[in-house]
Design goal:
- The chain has about 100 residues and is an all-beta fold.
- It has no helices and eight strands.
- The strands form two sheets. Strands 1-4-2-3 form a four-stranded antiparallel β-sheet, with no helix packed on it.
- It is elongated and about 40 Å long.
- The two termini are about 25 Å apart.
Length: about 100
């Protein structure tokens, strides 16, 4: 699971400023040098991913939310599911969080 290196845990230091999404799908604007917080909705330790992070077909969904693939197809995925193939072409594709 090479994409795990792109996930940050509560308590780690933010090295790149930007919008991050926690495992529950909550967004937070974080600045370099800050500490990754607990989940805003659940109040517990969580993992965070930069909103610009890409995911590939077959990877595990680490944060629930709305996603869009490289072909513009939309999907609502839950933590623990697997990123699907493109709904329109059936081919492997990359996914990003939908803004």
């Amino acid at each position: 699971m090479s994409h795990m290196k792109d996930h940050h845990h509560t308590g780690e230091i933010v090295s790149e400023a930007g919008t991050y999404i926690c495992a529950a799908g909550e967004k937070a604007e974080l600045h370099q040098g800050e500490t990754f917080p607990e989940c805003p909705s659940a109040g517990n330790a969580t993992t965070w991913t930069h909103a610009n992070h890409t995911h590939r077909t077959g990877e595990t969904v680490m944060e629930s939310g709305h996603y869009i693939d490289a072909d513009g197809e939309h999907a609502v995925l839950q933590q623990g599911e697997i990123f699907p193939c493109c709904p329109s072409t059936g081919q492997s594709v990359t996914w990003i969080h939908e803004e």
